[in-house]
Amino acid sequence: MYSREHKKIERLFLFGEVANQLSFTKAAKTLGMSKGYLSAQIKQLEQELALPLLVRSTRSVRLTASGRDIVRQIASMRRSLLSVERYARDDQSEVTGRLRITAPIQFTNGVLIELCKQFNQRYPKISFEIDSSYTNYDLMADDFDLAFRATNQPPKNLIAKKIMSYRHICCASPTYLAEFGRPTTPEELIQYQCLPSLDHTIWQFSTGNITVKGWLSANDNSVLKQQGIDGLGIVRLPSYYVEKAINNKLLIPILTDFELRGQSIYLLQPQLIRPAQKVVTFSQFVQQKIALPD
């Protein structure tokens, strides 16, 4: 009996890969098995379940309604297995092991790396694996311990802790403002060299939207920030990303009375009955470090 159940579970996961790829050829290559063997296993699974899971043609594969339902069940099984594996590999009482975190690129560069460095100094047995992107991963299915996300509506199926609020603020270097003057309204920005990101050439203010332009636009805000510091134009970036430069007088905020309400950064984690001590401790550390000045 146990052997039959084991094989059925194996076939379910094989089917999950075919459903993900929608191709027997690609799925077989990913799984490291022959296409013929994979096809036979899926046919046997359909017989065992007495359900058609796939519609096959010479050129394509698509899921039936039953197939889509089974895929959702397989995803739930994967999450459960990952939860068991996570519990088994984590020492539940010590701050040790690897922390897998996903976070936005700018937050990673501006805040998270420093937090991780300080935490590692306090707990040397901890290591970090950071996915720096804007992808909203399924933390359980993709096996992440924690996520930082910019949002005003955190997901209800995760434990969400607000750690900071931020706004996008305009700023420029003291030398740039000394040479070209300080704009007093957003409308005056059209007279200045503004350095926007590639997908944000329209800057929003409480008085309306302004289309800005300058000698440079880029999809890397670290490049724009440095140009601003070097006195080559006005930039508009998240407050946490330019906070150090402002405190060090490298950048000066402008048009602050016209900025819109910003967003919040939330620390998210899966809802586990007994989370690992490393997750609990790092979460508390982040909240303390961001809430309290150094």
UniProtKB/TrEMBL annotation:
Query: What keywords would UniProt list here?
Result: DNA-binding, Transcription, Transcription regulation
State any single GO MF term.
DNA-binding transcription factor activity
PROSITE patterns membership? HTH_LYSR
**Residue ranges of domain HTH lysR-type in the record:** 17-64
Q: Which Pfam families match?
A: HTH_1, LysR_substrate
Q: Can you tell me which family this protein belongs to?
A: Belongs to the LysR transcriptional regulatory family.
Name the UniProt record assigns to this protein: LysR family transcriptional regulator
| Organism of origin | Thalassotalea algicola
What lineage does UniProt assign to this protein's organism?
Bacteria, Pseudomonadati, Pseudomonadota, Gammaproteobacteria, Alteromonadales
